[in-house]
Each structure stands twice: as structure tokens, then as C-alpha cells.
Amino acid sequence: MQPSASPPIHPLAPFLQPVRRWIRRTLLVLPGPVREFVLFGLKMAWSCLFGAGMLGLMIVTHLVWPVHSPIYRYDFLLAAAIAIQCLLLWTRLETFDEVKVIFLYHITGTIMEIFKTHMGSWTYPEPSIFHIGGVPLFTGFMYGSVGSFIARAVRVFDMRFSHYPKPWVTYALALVIYVNFFTHHFLFDFRYLIFAAIFVIYFRCFVFFRIDRAVHSMPYLLAGTLTAFFLWLAENIGTFTHTWSYPGKAWHLVSIQKMGAWGLLLIISFVTVTLIFKPKAPDGEAEKSGGYRFWFRGLAPRDQV
């Protein structure tokens, strides 16, 4: 018998493994809850590699981009996004399945960007060579970074989902949300009815995730709301760096109501991810059947459980 081929060596393994061991040794000096909180933050940052890279580039290019540069800023952001994507693939920090998610969301996001800029919802004030209908092509990667974050977070935190809705229900919901982003300019805006439908569909759904060894849980709706808030913060960075702008002369904080739009986009993002990464149920029977009562028991101090 021929010896089986050894698995390919991760290009960053010689660097990442010592760093992981150092982080774990360092965190051992912290109290348990603090250690888990810090580790949670590190894992979230690890899941946000693509999005954090794009935001960092927006900030840096806004601060230092030469006025008479031979390359337009938007075109540089496009080249940098492609380079980041290739680097993540080469280092295997991102899988080809995750790239499929980014590609799908890239297309849906770009189509919506073209329509929204045509309707005057927002604009891209700087020139570019690589654009469609006034929309620079790097913008699709901004949407793709959201899909990348969700796909990576599901893998990094080993996420499981209890009482997840039937797939056809989520597909129909995502389609209605996407269509409403277009039709509300001409017809009635159904977003509040959609919010009510989201509440009914996902109310029983819980996310189970592993930070270190212990498994934690959170209502799906709460997880989505928190994520929408951080996306709203990221959007303020985008407008502050004049990467895109809303009607009006001076910069101002984006309305907190935009969190609602991000929440709707997150539903589309997550459903897109589930086309490739099917939601897994928890391993334990208690988690599979548990609801808010089970969750509150887990939040209670140990001496009160």
C-alpha cells in the first residue's frame, strides 16, 4: 500500500500556533469571565479580517491619499480588496466556499448600489475608472465583507442554531426584503411589516457558540441587533472618510434608524451564507429544545441555578 498523502501545511502555521499558545498563557492570569470576554473579542476580530481590512484602508486613504495621485482612490480600494481576498485564500484564512458567499453577495450588493445611487439615496463623490453606473466596483466587496464575517464567525465560533426556520421560509423572506429595497421608492414601504415577520419567524431561534470550552447561547434576534449596531458604526466610518456620502453638505452622524436597514441586509447576508453553509443544530437535546427559559437559566449566577 502506498502511504497516504500528508495534509498540506498551513502557510501561517509556524507563526499562528506560537501566537495562539502565547495568547492562551497570557489569558490564564485573568478571571474566567474576563478571559472569555477578551477571547470573544479576539475571535470576533479574527472573523472580521476582510471587513476590518477594508475599513482600515478607507481611513488610511482618506488621511494620506495624494491629491494628484495617478491612481484614483476608489480604484486603489478595488485593487486592495482583490489583493486581500487573494491573500486570505493563499493563507487559507478563508475557504473557497466562503469566497462563493462573498461573490454572491458582491453581485446582489452591486446591483442594489447601482439602483440606490441612481435614485439619489447616496453618492460616490470621487472619480474612478472601474465603475458601473457611477458605482465604483470596490463597493461590492464592502457587501462581501459582511458575508465573509458571517461565514467566518460561524466557523470560528462553531455556531449552531436551534429552532432555525425552514429554508424555504428564509429564502422567501430574503427575497421580499431585497425586492422592498427597490420597490419602496415607487410603492408602499413594507419594512415594518417585514420586521414583524422577522420577529415571528426568528423569535424561537437561538444561536449557540463556543468561545473556549464552554458553549454559550443568545437569541438570534439579539445577535442580529448587536451586529446591525456595529455595522451602523462602520457605516459612520465610511461617511466620515467621504468614501460615500448622503444628500447634504456637511458630514453628520448617520441616523440610528439606518440600523433597521442593516438588520434587513443581515437577514439577506445570513440567508446567502446558508446557501453554502447549512445551519447545524446543537449537539445536546437540552439546547435543541430549550428556549428563553433555558437561556435565562444559563445567564443566572451558578448559586441561583
Can you walk through the features of this model?
The chain has 305 residues and is mostly helical. It has helices at residues 13-27, 32-47, 49-64, 73-90, 96-118, 139-156, 167-183, 191-202, 220-240, 258-274, 285-289, 292-299, and strands spanning 131-132, 135-136, 160-162, 206-210, 215-219. The longest helix is centred in the middle third of the chain and has 23 residues, at 96-118.
Task: Give me the secondary-structure topology.
Blueprint: H1 13-27, H2 32-47, H3 49-64, H4 73-90, H5 96-118, E1 131-132, E2 135-136, H6 139-156, E3 160-162, H7 167-183, H8 191-202, E4 206-210, E5 215-219, H9 220-240, H10 258-274, H11 285-289, H12 292-299
Antiparallel strand pairs: 1-2, 3-4, 4-5
Number of strands: 5
Distance between the termini: 56 Å
Strand order of the largest sheet: 3-4-5
Could you list the spans in which at least 5 consecutive residues all have pLDDT below 50?
Answer: 1-8
Instruction: Give the proportion of residues in helices.
Output: 55-70%
- H-E order: HHHHHEEHEHHEEHHHH
Strand content: 5-15%
Radius of gyration: 21 Å
